[in-house]
Amino acid sequence: MPFALAQKQVDPTEKEMIARWVADEMPLASGAGIYLDAGSQCMEVWKAIMKLVLGHRYSHLSIVTNNFMVLESWASQQMHPQFQGTSVEMAGDIFDAAHLALYGGAVQTKLMSGNFRPSAVYIGTSGVEFDDGRILFGYHAGD
Question: Cα dist. 132→129, 135, 136, 138 in Å?
Fold first, then answer.
């Protein structure tokens, strides 16, 4: 089982609760640009935002992500009329099967192009550690 799928099973109730809080407490506007990073928590944020799209709270969102799970979800959901005008674009040119994510120079190129100006950026981490008053975040794809 890929690491990403195993991570979906870790504290799913807490992940869903956090994602609902993010979607409710950090409201977006229709037409907003959103960047969703890889990882199971960002996938939960995606699902929470999509529920709000289905509930007619948002429309015409522009999503950029390197999260392959988001792309799979989008492919199965885009038939709903509420998703008309909402787009999902992949960022990345190297597929990481263990993390179900894309990474590489194309991510930076997309984000630095100036053509995409997100209203919200959701970043996932591979782990959080506290050490001597510092917060350390893990990351799996190099620099």
Answer: 10, 8, 10, 16
